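Morning, I've got a small favour to ask if you have a moment. I owe you a coffee for this, so here goes:
>
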Amino acid sequence: MPTTAPAFSGATASDGALRRFLHGLPGVDAVGLEARAASLGTRSIKTTAKAYAIDLAISMIDLTTLEGADTPGKVRALCAKALHPDPTDRTTPRTAAVCVYPDMAATAVAALTGSDVKVASVATAFPAGRAALPVKLADVRDAVAAGADEIDMVIDRGAFLSGHYLKVYEEITAVKAECGTARLKVIFETGELSTYDNIRRASWLGMLAGADFIKTSTGKVATNATPANTLLMLEAVRDFRLQTGVQVGVKPAGGIRTTKDAVKFLVLVNETAGEDWLDNHWFRFGASGLLNDLLMQRQKLSTGRYSGPDYVTVD
């Protein structure tokens, strides 16, 4: 069941009530939002803090393969990388999770058994979400039965953009019920929501429906995670906890490729939501390509030189 606080129980009583609530949220000052995100992105950090930030970012990555050509061997190799990102330096943190399609979840579970690396599985007809609800729920059940610790679902953007908010809410709650003990990440595909106001509304809708995480994107469209849309979602989880006592995580996904990018996002987290979110239980990066750059920057800090091109694996 959703973890909505009593103060918001009436907001989801009907489609009309939910629409009034979501459209009653404060409008987003786009210029101000983007200016603040840009300003926070200019913060510089020194060597010791940078080393900490690199290790923290590595520990927050959901190492992901979501391709039609995925094989059990590729998934096992990805799991090995998650467990030992730098085989030459066992002090390197493990990643937070490995994210795969439902049919590969059992392979990932077997490879990661006994470790603290989670298995995340996309579901609900990822990435388009264009399937009937029973099909989406079967997708979730398959992933959970295979041992997935986390489910990454996509919302019905067509329903959301048509103003059918209660349909989206009920779909999220139905998926949440199928998750059991698995944590639920709700993906908005912010690049398809068109406006910052819609991203704010989607954030609150997901949280009201019981999301454990709200996630920017699938990584399968042109516009994915940006500092501005992530800042907006961080403000939403901060305000939601202030009003309900319930903490919800945030996962920007897609387009975050460099250590410099990752540090900018960590500054956003610290300055907006606060230190409570600077932990991989509450913040993740959906950015597999990011790991290689973090590893090279980590070695540079350790040895004073950049590694050769064969230092990291090519995903």
